[in-house]
Amino acid sequence: MNIRAMILVLLVVVFAVAMGAINFASLGSVDLEKAQSQGTAWVIQNTAAGTVPHTVTITNNGTQAVRVNQGQLLESPDSQDLVVAENMTISPGSNGTVQAYCTEPAQKATPGSSLKANQAANPMVLFIIQSSTPTDAASARQAQLKIWSLKTGGEVDPYTGEAAAMVKTSKSSYYQLRQDLSTAREDLSSQFKLSNESLPSLADQRDGLTRWLEGLGNWFKEFLGT
Hints:
alpha+beta; six-stranded antiparallel β-barrel; 7 helices; globular
């Protein structure tokens, strides 16, 4: 078995185990997307642009517990789109604070904005999140830069949006950010056995089940070299 096939099998196993754990924990509860569609849950952006990871407050006014899963996408027309970085169950009539990475480096987060749950991130983003430690600044920063690189096909503009805000918040430099972005691209290429030419093709892996499946199929073809 070649190295690409071995890594592919590992990713599939990790994804299946994660989904199985989520399904096991789902008894007597409802996922965030459904809770929002029922009008019993609200998600509010807490942190300002440049924060890594961001945090959101989820309010559950329903009669069932609300499941919040790693990889859950949170979207807003007025703020930064996010992807949840941890699993949490929020009891009826309570609030929970959840960590999340942002997905659009050219946009900025706006505290107080509402977000809406929408499907789940693609497996590569989920794998990056599961491999990170959001409470560790260095690990969280590395994961954030990898997610940005996947989202943009490796073309992150360090002078706009969340990327520029990160420099200001961390009291770093644009030079350091460019260096870290370059390292993130190299790590992605090594971790997923991708060439520099294949990274841009990942930029169109958008949200939604149909587009997620399409992106996953294209990635499998690239991964296996077919």
